[in-house]
Please model this.
Amino acid sequence: MTPTLFYWLNILNSKVINPRNLDKKQLNNFKTIILVRYIPLNIFLYLMILKRKSKKIILFLDDNLLELNIFSELPFFYKLKIFINIYSYKFFFNFFINEIWVTNKLLGEKVKQKISKNSINIKLLPLNYNQNYPLKKIYKIAYLGTTSHTKELLWLKKLFEKIQQQRNDCLIEIYVNKKWRNYFRSVPRIKMSYPLDWETFYLDTVVGKVDIVLNPIFNSNFNNFRSPTKFFDITRLDAVGIYSNLKPFSNFIHHNHDGILLDNNVDDWTEKISYLLDNSDVRERLLVNALKRSGKLLNDL
Model:
């Protein structure tokens, strides 16, 4: 899903295919094909064949991508992307495009000017989005660790992928640097924030709310001597914590009372996450107990 699809096309129930994962033969199964903003190079020639087979091929534009000024204020690499992915094709539109949809009258006039030698119908598309999207509850799952925990991050990606394969109602939040952002990019519905200083992180966890926070750790000299401070971050988020059944958590968390302790098995974690999300009463009981204990511990300091 992209803003373009959400606000203009409202095609939640239609088939959306990422060009990176596209097998061009799939396109034979559709009567109408909408190309959003760009022309995938891997299907360019095949689109000509599809048009001859009476498939309707539509190009949807919500920006002035058919005009390219090398001296414009746009970043160089964005201009290069525009040139490679759409501008270089505009002289061949007649061969593979039936219709162009635009989002406003001014853009329509500009597109008509830029493809004046092509006999292609240009259609003004009105806003058409579902104001109630999403209709169901969305759950937040977070990992609050830093990017120094390499083993944990490698393991978490497998867990995230499995969760998101099994459910479509979860938003995952994680703090990662540029290197790890590229690593996690393929995980669906993941919100990646750059690491924060302590004060900013504290304020963020005061105002933010999360359903489940994940705390996987692996047995190491470093981890064995850590303090279980994540427990307080989690209660501040009004979240339930799932922890690896290893020190320091195994000596601190009361399993199934103020948190959950699990061995580092992706299947077990996935099953427990789904169970907790589907049982709000269990989450509430764990959270209430964790809040009581957190308050008592802090008051005793």
Notes: The first helix runs from residue 3 to 9. The first strand starts at residue 32 and ends at 36.
